[in-house]
C-alpha cells in the first residue's frame, strides 16, 4: 500500500462500495464495479472500471489506486494482473453473515474508521437478533431459494441464514456451507421432493421468469407453484454479501415469508 490510510481506493464489487459510503469514507473511492448501485448516487459519482470477472486494467491503473478491494477466487485473474502491476490488493471471501460483519469491520480498519465500522456491524447484529427472536408460526414455511436456473443452483450461505432469521425453513440448509456455486448445483427432483411452500429466486443479474419455473416437469404439484408463490428478489438486495443483504434483503425475505403465512392462514 502506498500510504495509510489509502486515499485512492478501487472497489471491484458492490458491498465494499456501500460499506465505505455508510462509513462516510466515499471520497476515498476512485473507481467501482459496474454493478455498484447502492447508494444510487454512486452511479453518477464514481467511474466504472470493472464487471464481476473482468476489468479494464489500464483504466484502473490510470486511477493510481493506493488499494484495490476485491472478492473471492472469481476475481483471481483480475487480481493477478493488478498484483503484477504493483497494486496493493485486499481480497475478501465472505460467504456467511459472520463473514459479512467481519468484512465491514475490516474495511473500517483499512480506512481508520474502525470504531464507526464496529458500531455499524453491532447495529446489524442487534437487528438480526431482534428479527430472529420474533415468535413464528409452526411449522415454518419451507423456502427454496434459486440463485440460477440452468443448471439449478441453490442459495449461498448468507442467504440460507437470512431465510431462517426471517422466519422460513431453508429446504437445503446443508448446502449453505458450500462456497462455490458449482457445489450447490441440484437436481429439479430435489426441489420437487422437498415441496417448498415458497420459491424465491434471484438469477444473479438477469430477470427471473416465473413461468419458466412453473413449467418445469413435475413441479406443478409443488405447493409454491400450485399456490402461485414464486417471487423474485432483485440481485443487488440479496446476492451482494454486504449491508444490502443484511438490511433490504432481509426485509424483503421477512415480508415475503410473512405474506405466505398470512395467505396460508386465510386458506385454512
Low-confidence stretches: none
Principal-axes shape call: globular
Radius of gyration: 20 Å
Tell me the fraction of residues in β-strands, as a range: 5-15%
- Looking across the biggest beta sheet, what order are the strands in? 3-2-1-4-5
Q: How many strands, which pairing sense, and closed or not: the largest β-sheet?
A: 5 strands, parallel
User: Overall mean pLDDT score?
Assistant: 93
Tell me the number of strands. Answer: 10
**Order of secondary-structure elements:** EHEHEHEHEHHEEHEHEHHEHH
Instruction: Note the gap between the termini.
Output: 62 Å
What are the key terms here?
5-stranded parallel beta sheet; 10 strands; globular
Please characterize this protein's 3D structure.
The chain is an alpha/beta fold and 268 residues long. Helices cover 43% and strands 15% of the residues. The protein is built from twelve helices and ten strands. The chain has helices at 14-22, 42-45, 57-62, 76-84, 97-110, 114-132, 157-165, 188-194, 210-214, 223-226, 235-238, 243-267; strands at residues 9-11, 29-33, 48-50, 67-71, 89-92, 142-149, 152-154, 169-170, 198-201, 230-232. Strand 6 and strand 7 form a beta hairpin.
Amino acid at each position: 500500500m502506498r500510504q495509510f490510510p489509502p486515499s485512492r481506493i478501487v472497489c471491484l464489487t458492490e458491498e465494499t462500495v456501500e460499506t465505505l459510503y455508510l462509513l462516510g469514507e466515499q471520497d476515498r473511492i476512485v473507481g467501482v464495479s459496474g454493478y455498484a448501485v447502492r447508494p444510487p448516487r454512486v452511479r453518477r459519482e464514481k467511474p466504472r472500471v470493472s464487471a464481476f470477472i473482468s476489468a479494464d486494467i489500464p483504466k484502473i491503473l490510470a486511477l493510481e489506486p493506493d488499494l484495490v478491494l476485491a472478492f473471492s477466487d472469481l476475481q483471481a485473474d483480475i487480481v493477478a494482473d493488478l498484483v503484477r502491476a504493483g497494486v496493493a490488493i485486499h481480497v475478501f471471501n465472505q460467504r456467511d453473515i459472520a463473514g459479512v460483519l467481519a468484512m465491514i469491520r475490516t474495511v473500517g480498519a483499512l480506512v481508520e474508521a474502525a470504531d464507526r465500522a464496529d458500531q455499524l456491524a453491532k447495529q446489524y447484529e442487534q437487528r438480526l437478533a431482534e428479527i430472529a427472536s420474533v415468535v413464528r408460526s409452526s411449522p415454518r414455511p419451507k423456502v427454496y431459494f434459486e440463485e440460477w436456473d440452468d443448471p439449478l443452483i441453490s442459495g449461498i450461505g448468507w442467504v440460507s441464514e437470512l431465510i431462517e432469521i426471517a422466519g422460513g425453513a431453508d429446504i437445503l440448509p446443508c448446502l449453505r456451507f458450500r462456497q462455490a456455486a458449482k457445489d450447490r448445483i441440484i437436481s429439479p427432483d430435489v426441489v420437487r421432493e422437498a415441496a417448498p411452500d415458497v420459491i424465491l429466486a434471484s438469477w444473479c443479474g438477469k430477470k427471473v421468469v416465473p413461468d419458466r419455473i412453473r413449467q418445469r416437469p413435475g413441479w406443478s404439484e409443488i405447493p409454491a407453484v400450485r399456490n402461485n408463490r414464486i417471487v423474485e428478489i432483485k440481485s443487488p438486495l440479496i446476492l451482494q454479501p454486504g449491508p444490502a443483504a443484511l438490511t433490504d434483503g432481509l426485509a424483503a425475505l421477512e415480508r415475503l415469508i410473512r405474506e405466505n403465512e398470512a395467505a396460508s392462514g386465510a386458506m385454512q
